Here is the input.
Amino acid sequence: MGAAPASRDVTSYGMGLAAPLALFFLLFFVAPLLQLLWLSLHNDTTALHWGLGQYLHFLTDPFSLSVLGSTLLLGAEVTAVCLVLGFPIAWLYQRVGPKLQTIIILIVLLPLLTSVVVRTFAWIVILGRQGIINATLQSLGIIDTPLKLLYTQFGVVLALAQVQMPLMTLPLITALGRIDPNLDDASCSLGAGSWRTFFRIVLPLALPGVIAGCTLTYAAAITAFITQSLIGGGQMLFMPMYLYQQASTLQNWPFAAAISIIFLLAVLAVVSVFTTLGRMSRGYGGA
Amino acid sequence: MIMNRRSLLTTALTLGAMKAFPGLSYAQARPLVFATFTGSWEEAHKAVLVPAFRKANADAAMVLDPMLSVDQIAKVNAAKANPPIDVMLHDPGPALVAIGQDLVEPYPVEKSAYYKDLITEAQEPMGPAPFFQVVGLTYNPEAVKTPPTSWADLWKPEFKGRVGITNLNSTLGTGWLVEIAKMRGGSEANVDPGFKALEELKPNLAAVAANPGALATLFQQGQIDISPGNFNAIQILKARGVPVEFVAPKEGAIAFKTTIHIVKNSPNRELAFKLIEASLTPEVQTTLMNPPYLIVPTNSKVTMGGEIARVLAKDTAELKQKFVFQDWKKINEQRSAWIERFNREIKI
Here is the structure.
């Protein structure tokens, strides 16, 4: 792995410095992952009989597949909301003075400084029957009976979007910061309107940031056990809760392991779609 | 004995290592480890049970290691020959799992000074029940003017969109479904009537919480006005100023035995026995019965007092008459199928 000692090439680099972390990952990530895979390949809860029964059970069961589908869909919705709301903030950040920049970055980072549990409970207060939204709408006379916001898909998407927003905004800020502002001016002086400039210049150049932000937000949103179960409640089943139920309440570890592996593969598939898009965008941006 | 510098250094290093990594030293030297539950249980045991045990056993070293039942079972299972826990605490479902997996020792009943004083339902030879958890109806007295009296009240049209329940992950959720099934002619072996009743409850359901803790917060938010609830948890909420009341339904309040067990192959068997004995004494149980803990006692020598006497039972005789115990052996057989069915059918 390391550079050949005879002819020291200054452009090559040794992998030695990465060894401690690699070893750490091998011991505490790869090994448990292999154990999980081993466990999932058993047909009975005591893990004595080999077989693909757990996978067959999941993949032939419409209910399990619908749980997987709704989880992946939830991730897509949250990512879309984060992108639409986060992009203008990141764009604004690049246009304002240093004082406002500090304020914006503080607002973006602030949620990261509070625990997820606290933020989620705050959303219960906001979305509840006598919560801020319902109380305001009622006092304005817009609605008579309180809207059901808590324990709905809408509520989960809203809360998750706020909780995961920094993961979208930060990569976007970085990506937009790398774009030369002169390009905008050049585009305008050559006669393109604001929208045309945005779609033909800014967006393609910002795509790597968009892809990175989407990947992070997506992965975080679909695995957010706490927010999903507290805002979604006990009857909206997503993959993390399904997994927990099988492993913890039912002690059916092989099935739980199979759920984890399937979930992992599904997420990897989505992430690889994002990465492919990213690679294509690089070609586009360079063109 | 001649000590050169090297041997002195080795000795010092060994002693230091033993201090830094207690697992290296002899198993017998490990303090007694009691895996209680997290939250209010841990607080109660730290404040009452541990001091009582220390006082009776010459300040013997012990550690509270709070964790969920399933984690206790997993940890003991992973090291059966040299378990990291000496005393386990379980709800009825997990207790049967632990016994079934041969993780606990029979309680030395003949040696025990207090076992015979426990009410019969608490006398479990594989590990006695020092406490009961009681599930009844919880309601918000500001919204519900006439206190409910029966589980059937949850189906009243006036509670449209005001009822909360939990899913079957919890002992509370599962036990409640069984009770509803019984009310409609079912049993621990047949919860079909319970599921039919749930179907009819749907218009009234405002929330299916993921766990009993989440259900309690829904009262605080005014999201629900009535639900099945745990006596102990409700008293804690009430003490914090949330408008909630607990009432035992006329069908009987559901009582869960919280059992305490000596772990098989425990290196601290004798101390483990002593700790369990301490949890069965009338003194400890009386203290835990009083505020702020309000844990229902199982020793018949304890005189009921306070909120427990007012709401639940004045004495053991009344307690036996008003409490319903369930057959968790039967429940465990089909619980996974019920959870699956609940996942599929209960969508609101």
About this structure: Residues 328-345 of chain B form the longest helix (18 residues). Chain B has two domains: 25-131+256-324, 134-255+327-345. Residues 22-27 of chain B have pLDDT under 50 and may be disordered.
